Amino acid sequence: MHKKTLSDWSLDFCIYLVLLLCGLATLLPLANILSKAVSDESSVVSGKVGIFPVGFQLETMKYVVSSSQFLHSIGISLLITVVGTVLAILVTAITAYPLSKRHLPGISFIMLLFIFTMMFNGGIIPNYLLMKQLHLINSLWSLMLPALISVFNMLVIKSYYESLPEALEESAKMDGARNFTILFRIILPLSVPVIATIALFYAVYFWNDYFHPMLYINDAGLKPLQLYLRDIVLNADSSNALNKSTDDLMNTSPEGVRSATVIASIIPMLLVYPYLQKHFVKGVLIGSVKG
Question: DSSP of 10-26, one letter per residue?
Fold first, then answer.
């Protein structure tokens, strides 16, 4: 067994130190927002809150999670995230399957078209005009349909398919299975790690997307959570942004409400990630090894 030398220990120390600093750089802003969300109003307004709460209270969090507008927006975001992710995984997995077959006629030209769309797109105005022509303005489909397939995610799944033994499909075909049967009953069950990873990518995208809702959604009743958060951040006067009552204003501050809303918005993703984390590293590595 190799015994670590002083230089090995020094290298390990430097690596752990860099990782620790990177971790702190990631966590410190989140700790500051969390502290503001659970600190009393006077401490938040006077700027006394750092990474630890000052004057601990939960009134602001209670106000945010009990707000009808917040609950409605989070319901819209959950609907977009769940439906959009399921459809996106389905479309991406089905598209990647034929493209993983090297004997497909014109495969190089088809891949060139996909790569072209990954590097170039029509732009904001053509996309907006397209949504308008399709009568999808003020429709939740305008937030899901354009994002049903990501070429990068499709390439990751395609690479994973190519890593599977061809003998599996040949055996299935000898038993009379057709392409859809092979895909849904053999290939997809073997692709759980990469499918879970890509599902997480899509879910985070749909959950965090605020730019497209800002373009396509004008109806206040269809605003997702990120658009609701944007309204709060842009409006310094919380009484206008949130229609707060006098009692609410006595216990909360605009900065505290903004911080509490941000914390409440990331909780769903934090709850989902541990269930997909065990597939995350394996799915990304295996899906990206083959080009």
Answer: HHHHHHHHHHHHHHHHH
